[in-house]
Design the sequence.
C-alpha cells in the first residue's frame, strides 16, 4: 500500500472516533458504505469462530436504530468517552479494497470526573480506497475483555 | 492538506509531548509561535461558550511564569506523566495556517508506581505550516473531565 | 528523514505490538535484526546511567529463552494486553540507521474483565531503513514506573 492510501485510512479513522467522542451519534451511521457491516464481539468469541458476537448490523437502518435506542435509554447525559487509536496494520489488499487491523483504547469520563478504561481491543476494518478518501465498508470490533454488559451501549 | 504538511503537524505534536514528559518544562514555551495562545478549559465550559476557561496565556512570558510557578510549587519530584496522542483531524486550512483537532490521553505515574489516567480530551490547534516544520500558534486544550483542581498544574 | 522512511518505522512498530497483543510471542524475537539488542529499564535507572536495567538480551537466542520461560511460568491463560503507541520522534540519523523515541501505554485486561494501565514509557529504538521496510536493531524500553516486579514478564 502506498503512503497516500495509508494516510487516507488514518484520516478516516480519526474522523470516525471524533464523531463518537463529540457525541454526534446521529452522524455515525454515515461512516459506513457498501456492505455497511458493523459487528462487535469479544476476543474469546472471535477465537472460537463466533464472529456474530454481541452486536451485528449490516444495513444503515440497523445502525440508525442502534443510535435511537441508545438515545432513548440515556436520557440524561452522564458520561463521555475518548477513543485513542494506534497505527493500523495492513492485513491484505485486493483492488481498491484494503483490510486493516487497528488497536484502540476507549477511556470513559464519569459525571464526577473519574476516568477509567472503558474498553480496549482492535478494529478489523475493510476500506475502499477512493480518489479522495478511504470509505469504511466493514468494521468488526474485537473487544479484549469478555465482560460485555456495558459494551452494548456506545458505538466503538 | 497534502501528506507532507500532515506529517509536519504530527511530528510537531510528538516533540511537544516529549518535552513535557521528559520534564523539560523550561523548553515548553518555545513550542509556541506567533499569537502564542495557550488555553485550558473543560468540555462543559467549551460547550457553553466559556472558552476563557481555566488557564489563559497569550504571551511567551505568561507561559514562562506558569513553569516557574509550577517548579516552585513542586519542590520534590513526585510523579511523572505520559501523553499518548491520537491522529489529528484537519478542521480547516487558510493560506499557511491549519486548524486541527487531536485527541489525547495523559497517564500519571505516582511515586509508588501506581498509574492512572490523569486527563483526556482534545487539542484544538492552529499551526503555521512552514518550509521545514509546523509551528504551533494556538492551542486550546479541552479536557473531558470537569474536575479541574489537579489540572491546573502540568502543561497539557 | 523523508516521509516514506518515517512511515516504514511506524508500520514496523505497529506489527511489533500486534504480534505481542495477539499472543504470538514465539514470533517476537524475529522482529530484531543486526545487533538484536533488547533492554528494559526504568526511567529512574536510565537517568542514573544504569542502562543495563532489568532485562538485557543481545542475541536472538536470549529472546527465544525469555519467551520459553514466560510460557512455562504462565501455564494458564490469565490476562491479555493492549499496546497503544504514540508517534515516534526522530532523534538522529546516520546512513541507513535511525534512532527514534516513541511513547507507549500498555493496558492489561484481567480474566474478570477489569482493565488497568500495566505500563507506560518510551521506546528508544534503532532502525535500519531498508528498501522495503524498517528493521528494528535495538530497543531500549524505559518504563515510567519504578515498580518493576510485574514488568519482568511480558515483552514490551
Sequence:
Amino acid at each position: 500500500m502506498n503512503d497516500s492510501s495509508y494516510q487516507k485510512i488514518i484520516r478516516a479513522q480519526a474522523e470516525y472516533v471524533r464523531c463518537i467522542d463529540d457525541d454526534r451519534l446521529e452522524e455515525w451511521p454515515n461512516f459506513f458504505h457498501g456492505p455497511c457491516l458493523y459487528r462487535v464481539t469479544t476476543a474469546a468469541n472471535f477465537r472460537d469462530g463466533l464472529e456474530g458476537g454481541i452486536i451485528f448490523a449490516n444495513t444503515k437502518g440497523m445502525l440508525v436504530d442502534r443510535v435511537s435506542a441508545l438515545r432513548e435509554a440515556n436520557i440524561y447525559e452522564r458520561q463521555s468517552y475518548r477513543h485513542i487509536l494506534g497505527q493500523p496494520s495492513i492485513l491484505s489488499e485486493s483492488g481498491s479494497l484494503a483490510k486493516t487491523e487497528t488497536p484502540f483504547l476507549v477511556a470513559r469520563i464519569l459525571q464526577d470526573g473519574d476516568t477509567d478504561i472503558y474498553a480496549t481491543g482492535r478494529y478489523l476494518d475493510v476500506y475502499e480506497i477512493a480518489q479522495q478518501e478511504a470509505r469504511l465498508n466493514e468494521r468488526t470490533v474485537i473487544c479484549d475483555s469478555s465482560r460485555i454488559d456495558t459494551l452494548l451501549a456506545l458505538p466503538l
About this structure: Chain C has a mean pLDDT of 90. The two ends of chain C are 26 Å apart (CA to CA). Chain C touches chain B through 24 residues (CB under 8 Å). Helices of chain C lie at 3-21, 43-47, 60-73.
